[in-house]
Design brief:
TIM Barrel, nine-stranded mixed beta sheet
Length: 430
């Protein structure tokens, strides 16, 4: 049992100016320092720091780590070109060794960015079978994070193996690891494949790219005479809790279908800007009462930045400088923790008794008054712009202390470098 004392505490709901938090794997007691009880365990002095819940990345591609710096010929004109020339070429050569070592680096860098849990959307052409276990071994077993994993089923791959691997991931049932059923996107999924998936899906949630670019919608309309979300609904694939990533180009009918089926949308604003696919319409989501999550599509590890970009891109998308209030932002952030907790069977995202001890300590000196009414403004503008916590605790275990992790980082990066060399050789790049 440990206690953090003399610390500002903020969990997007409650603010304590000078508080304490006593915890094991779960939080045992939280309060003002004036009421700090007699305590015999390890004490951590949090003076000059703020205690926040750990961040969650709700849509990422861990394997993207090993493409960093690769000179792959790349002259895209459309989003489909980006897939053909870069990502589909790259992921077709991934094996379980590369998957594991990419996850070790990505997980470590995520922790250093204050991310304590993630939902990954994986693809690897050489090794499909065993790929989710490789991810789980790195992210959960070795690095001590929490994760939800799936394989992005696509007609580019062996469909039987894709289905079998997703079924293996659905067997994860702990508070540390769970599975979803992964699908790439409508434009890479035939009718035959969707029918095969439905036959074995049951009530498992899917995790799928939806209308990331207009090409996804055009492909569905041209080939199936319906829009992307309508197509997935036709096959009864949108189960409660399903994650539909991006949704940049959905219309109002599709938004209603998402809400009616109890699915959620994971936005990825930085990736959308990078791929020049367009800007999401926040009014469409809010008018249909859709729960929003935040991811980064594998582009770095800074989820705090993604929340800020969501705020800015959301206002730009509707051309309204006052388009998103901080109260609305807090609704989405708190809702995202509630969603993850429900999927994992835990209470997460609050610094309260009974919630899991997944949190971060970050130095922060407020240049202006800070209280319960403006705490989020301080976090949003003062911390999220360049978020690098000094200490990261997951399941009550300190994984990063004073910016130094407990892991053999030299070995992690060395092994990833060796794995990347073998991967790049298969790609024919330097």
């Amino acid at each position: 049992m440990k206690a953090i004392i003399n610390v500002k505490i903020y969990d997007y709901e409650t603010y304590i100016e000078n508080g304490y938090c006593i915890y094991g794997k779960e939080i045992i007691d939280v309060g003002d320092m004036a009421t700090f009880p007699d305590f015999e365990g390890e004490i951590i002095d949090g003076e000059g720091k703020i205690l926040l819940p750990g961040l969650i990345n709700f849509h990422t591609h861990v394997y993207s780590t090993l493409v960093r710096g690769a000179a792959i010929p790349y002259q895209p004109r459309t989003f489909k070109d980006i897939l053909d020339q870069l990502w589909w070429k790259f992921d077709s050569k991934l094996d379980n060794t590369a998957t594991y070592h990419s996850a070790m680096v990505y997980g470590l860098e995520s922790l250093k960015s204050g991310v304590t849990s993630m939902i990954d959307h994986h693809a690897s052409g050489i090794d499909i079978i065993g790929s989710l276990d490789s991810l789980k071994k790195a992210i959960v077993d070795k690095l001590g994070m929490r994760g939800i994993f799936c394989f992005e089923t696509s007609d580019r791959f062996n469909i039987t193996e894709c289905i079998d691997e997703n079924l293996s991931g659905l067997k994860y049932k702990s508070s540390d690891a769970r599975g979803m059923f992964g699908l790439h996107a409508s434009l890479s999924l035939s009718e035959s494949t969707l029918m095969k998936v439905k036959r074995i899906l049951g009530d498992a949630p899917i995790h799928v790219h939806v209308a990331e670019s207009i090409e996804d919608e055009e492909d569905s309309l041209n080939n199936y005479r319906m829009r992307v979300v309508e197509r997935f609904e036709k096959h009864n694939l949108i189960n409660k809790g399903s994650i539909l990533a991006h949704c940049v180009h959905i219309n109002s009918k599709e938004a209603r279908i998402i809400e009616e089926n109890g699915a959620v949308i994971a936005l990825n604003p930085t990736s959308n800007m990078n791929n020049a696919v367009g800007t999401f319409n926040i009014n469409l989501f809010r008018n249909n009462n859709i729960r929003l999550l935040i991811g980064n599509d594998g582009l770095g590890t800074n989820i705090a930045k993604e929340w800020t970009y969501f705020y800015y891109a959301g206002k730009a998308g509707i051309n309204d400088a006052a388009g998103i209030s901080f109260n609305e932002m807090l609704k989405y952030i708190n809702g995202s923790y509630e969603y993850f907790g429900k999927q994992m069977g835990i209470q997460i995202g609050k610094i309260k008794e009974g919630y899991v001890s997944d949190f971060v300590l970050s130095p922060y000196k407020n240049p202006t008054k800070m209280d319960k009414d403006n705490a989020f403004g301080h976090v949003f503008y003062g911390l999220f712009e360049n978020f690098k916590p000094s200490d990261v605790i997951v399941k009550g275990k300190t994984l990063i202390e004073d910016y130094v992790s407990i892991f053999d980082e030299e070995a992690i990066y060395k092994n990833a470098n060796i794995a990347s060399q073998a991967l790049w050789k298969k790609l024919g790049v330097t």
